[in-house]
Amino acid sequence: MLATASSELPRAEGFGYEFKWDGYRAIIHLRKGDVRIDSRRTNDVTRRFPQIAAGARRVHEPHLILDGEIVALDQENRPSFGLLQQHLRVPGAGPVPRTPPPVVFFAFDLLQRGAKSYLSRPYVERREILSDIAFDDAGWKVPPYEVDQGPAMIRVSDQVRLEGIVAKRLDSVYVPGTRSRDWLKIKHRRRQEFVVGGWTRGEGGRSGTFGALVLGYYDRRASETGPRDAKPRLVYAGRVGTGFDDATLRRLLEQLKGIERASNPFGEGDPGNEVTFVEPRLVAEVSFTEWTHLGQLRQTSFHGLRTDKEPAEVVKEPMFEGTKEET
Question: Are 94 and 251 in contact (CB under 8 A)?
Fold first, then answer.
């Protein structure tokens, strides 16, 4: 079940509020000691997270299915998607560090326990039962949630430099694969995913790699309001040329060369000259300071590829601008 992006907190009561963790969404299946970790795209990623799998085997439950987020924590105990990238490298795309940074699984939803499915039970009930399950491993945690405390939660998340919060209706059921307005994600940091549509050649010290990734997002309005056969347009959003280390530059260039195409994939906006276009298959997480009046990103920085996200899901996300009380 997926959350819908929102630029404001819910005005109604009856919501539970959680912090938004900057990590890798995962569904964990535990049955009699056997563990499977599935990504959002239903890929088996168990081998990439041996620490989480080992922790699952210490859970004293015969059968559990849990939804949550795998997070790598930095020295300040804050989520770091950059550190998590060391676990998410595509097989064959370069060496993996001998000792990837430790990761934590934040279990925020219960889908099944024993023979009973909880998909049709309300969020507040699923959360109550989840909090009673004993996780005897430091790498497994149940993060807190607060009822009807949205303004306080968004302030705290900003103070501790988290990405934002997620608001979930207390009576909402769990509908797999659905992006619902029963769950709302509210971000106050300007950071989101973008589709990679091309790259520019590097200069100077980066003449052997690339200069910048050319970015875009999908505008679904054409497909929603136009003819039935209309497809969402990929809108040019700007470029990102910082945030790469040498290993990432080499690894990404190899991936980019493998998906080159002759035609421009952007249906709106001008990516400029001297761009090598690629099939829009890669999703990059990028931070930026603002959108310009021309609809371009300003002062961008690359944080990693999102192998758990489909390019077709990437849209321009609204940002939280504060409540009236705060302003």
Answer: yes
Whether residue 84 contacts residue 304, with contact meaning beta carbons closer than 8 Å, is answered with yes
Q: Which of 157, 151, 110, 158 is nearest to 132 (CA)?
A: 110
Give the C-alpha separation, 145 to 124, whole Å.
Answer: 10
Task: Tell me the pLDDT of the chain averaged across its residues.
Answer: 89
CB neighbours (10 Å) of residue 2?
14
Dump pLDDT digits (tens) for 209-249: 999 999 999 997 755 555 565 689 999 999 999 999 898 99
DSSP-derived pairing of the beta strands 116-117 and 140-141: unpaired
Give the up-direction half-sphere exposure of residue 62: CA atoms within 13 A in the CB hemisphere.
Answer: 3
- Render pLDDT for 16-44 as a digit per residue (tens, 0 to 9): 999 999 899 999 999 988 999 999 889 99
**Nearest residue to 35 via CA among 59, 15, 7:** 59
Q: How far apart are CA 64 and CA 77, in angstroms?
A: 28
Which of 256, 211, 261 minimizes the C-alpha distance to 93? Answer: 256
Distance CA 141, CA 136 (A): 9
Please check whether residue 234 is in contact with residue 261, taking contact to mean a CB–CB distance below 8 angstroms.
Answer: no
Cα gap 7→184, rounded to integer Å: 9
Average pLDDT over residues 115-133: 96
Tell me which residues are annotated as active site. 20
CA–CA separation, 249 and 170 (whole Å)? 44
Q: Output the CA–CA distances (angstroms, integers) from residue 155 to 23, 149, 158, in the order listed.
A: 21, 10, 5
Q: How far apart are the first and last CA of the chain?
A: 33
pLDDT at 324 over 60: no
